[in-house]
Amino acid sequence: MAKTVIYKFGGASVKDADSVRNLAEILRNRLRKNLIIVVSAMGKTTNSLESILALKLEGKDYYENSAILKDYHLRLCRELFPRDHAIFPKLENLFVQLENDLEKVLTPQNYDEFYDRIVSFGELVSTRIVAEFLCLQGLIVLWQDAREVIYTNSDFRFAKIDWTKTRKSCQEKWKPLLENFPILTQGFIGSDPRGRTTTLGREGSDFTAAILATCLDAGSVTIWKDVPGVLNADPKLFLNTKKFDELSYREAAEMTYFGASVIHPKTIKPLANASIPLFVKSFLDPEATGTIIHELAVPHQVPTIVLKKDQVLVSFKVTDFTFIEEKHIHRVYEQLQKLKLRVNMLQLSAISISIVIDTQLFKLDELIAMLRDEFEIRYNEGLELLTILHQRVEEIPPMLEGYEALLEQASRNTFQAVRRKI
After folding, report:
1. Residue 342, Cα to own-chain centre: how many angstroms?
2. Does 204 reside within a domain?
3. How far apart are the first and last CA of the chain?
């Protein structure tokens, strides 16, 4: 039997009616049995749902935003379907469900669980629309709920996979279906032991593709993007970018660790462990070669630039005139782990620990509250973290022109700076 193949389409590939039509054309000559199509929320739907949650949390009127989001999906469907198509009552039911969920009580204490229940709605809607449109085009796919096979713990917003249970469910529930039909499902979402919706972290649909590939012993994963492949910098931010024709798993993992947005950070490890190749291709030019990430690639020395925005620099200074010791570092990391905060950069001095983290609602206040009795804490928000892999010394100063560097550090292969616009 042919090995399963996984395709993942992100939000930009289904952002409007023309994009959905383009997706159908990509699949027209590629659709077959043993194919799983993972689809993200449409366009900026996840951002819109996060904005709705922020308004609700502040006690403000979010109904207008909700109505705009509903209208966006309905307008898209009116361009794709006849007026009497079954997609319209299905959408109506989904939006009623969203409105009912939004009426429930939201507090800082239940925010993460509430977030997962609401934000997962984007994937559920998009996959319904895409599945119905493909079937309308004569491209038959089975819509399946990812939450019925991807099992996680209850770490809402950053759920960890129960690999044993997930593999068993994929093999038992989906493998028999794949022998006859391709499956279309959601990225980003799973379910905890109590059946509650969980999410795998922002942009987690890539990780979903890797999970399914690993659990179904797939032959390959292809991520369809709006770029020609993996580039050495974001073309929206930097000029003269270069495409990698191939990368090793290790190089790709290093890039995602430092924040390269082309692939979700957790995607590489399971694929590397199972020796499953990952292709990154353009949905704007589907016949182009793209980039292959696999075991055989020759290491590169091309400078690679990664820029993470919305960063916070937090410094913890000891107050009893002692020097920083291992116990101080352990104490800070203990609280970071409780809050599910990842450190993007760490620097130690004789009397302080400085970390760089992503901006996350509530998290900074909670971290300060946990540690204010032990440290003098200062922080700066609205920063950028610049990382250059395989840096060349002469290329660094131009990257800092017009910026104040609050923190810098360099190793043989990596340069990092926390910067803000002057």
Report:
1. 14
2. yes
3. 60
List the domain range (segments joined by +) for residue 101: 5-225
Q: Into how many domains does the chain fold?
A: 2
415 is in an annotated binding site: no
Partners of residue 199 on adjacent β-strands: 189
Give the DSSP H or E segment for 103.
none
11 is in an annotated binding site: yes
Residue 361 has pLDDT above 80, yes or no: no
Q: Is 43 left (phi over 0), alpha (psi -120 to 50) or beta?
A: left
d(CA 359, CA 381): 8
* 10 assigned ligand-binding residue: yes
121 is in an annotated binding site: no
Report the 10 Å Cβ neighbour count for 296: 8
Q: How far is C-alpha 421 from the geometric centre of its chain's CA atoms?
A: 27
Q: Which of 197, 225, 253 is the last residue of a domain?
A: 225
Token code pair at residue 271: 């694929």
User: What are the pLDDT digits (tens) for 387-414?
Assistant: 999 998 888 999 999 999 999 999 988 9
Angle, to 10 degrees, between the axis of helix 17-28 and the axis of helix 121-136? Answer: 60
User: What is the value of pTM for the model shown?
Assistant: 0.90
